[in-house]
Amino acid sequence: MQISNNYQPNFRSGHIDKKACKALSERLPSGQFDVFIQKFTNKHKGKDYNIELGTGVALDNRLDACITYDENNFRYIEEGVFSSIFTHPVRFMKRINKQIIKDLKSICLKGHIS
Asked: d(Cα 103, Cα 48) in Å, to the nearest integer?
């Protein structure tokens, strides 16, 4: 009798595209830029979702995020125009992290994002 194990863990992570790196480097002081990138990649490394941080279509300086949980559940979050001018990118990341927690709870309880 042959037993085969087809289980392959799905390790996902966070990615930051080139335009988002450029926008972050312009909005963050030089010492904070590297810390932000390191914290972002470490926080989302090996999680049950995939997050892609990019820039908005209309404005190059505005951040957006596409969070993919599985093939049926995903969320797109975009930073507001005034937020991109007056607030720190760390605030946007806190908003994303809160949304991820809400979405994961919803998927566990209901099977979908509400």
From this structure: 12
